[in-house]
Amino acid sequence: LTQIFASMMKKMLSLALAALLLQGCGMLLVGGAATTAGVVHDRRSTGTIIDDNALELKVLNTIRQAKTLADNSHVSVTGYNGMILLTGEAYNENIRQHITAAVERIPGVRQVRNQLVIGRRSTFMERAYDSKQTAKVKSALLDVKIAGFDPTRVKVVTEHGYTYLLGIVSEEEAQAAVDIARRVSGVKEIVSMFEITPNPAATTLGGNI
Predict the structure, then answer these.
(1) What is the pTM of this model?
(2) Mean pLDDT over residues 122-131, rounded?
């Protein structure tokens, strides 16, 4: 009986491991598909999206390589069309200003929007709550009733209860997105960082700009 039980347990563990591996592959495939879909619907050009992602890494590396800045801050970086949004915490105003100056010197950075708050580093639970709020706002944007509006074109970032909205949109799209996001429970404040263009569809070339 002991041998039969051990054999059954071994088979169950093998099946569980196989399921996890398959799930991992599925997640990779879904993630890749989601990334591709994001590029297709984005109003930035593919080259700009790549440049923005590269800028995010450069900014993070710049802060990490400056030990004083890295030890006295927690910074999240979002790049959009050459604009860098900094969210998180800095130990004091001096650290905050030095981070801005360091990022502004990076080639390719068009503008820096430093939204770092002064204070202690946020906890894992606080960051998890912000991530939940981001998901709620993204879901709410599906309710925007404007012909041609694509909620995936709106980048949503939440930090300390403040939700930042980025994207290339029309005035009507921007206002509708802000109005919807403001009604999401738990949102402290909506900060609109949209790039407004009269006819965003005209800038689209084959699905990208």
Answers:
(1) 0.76
(2) 96
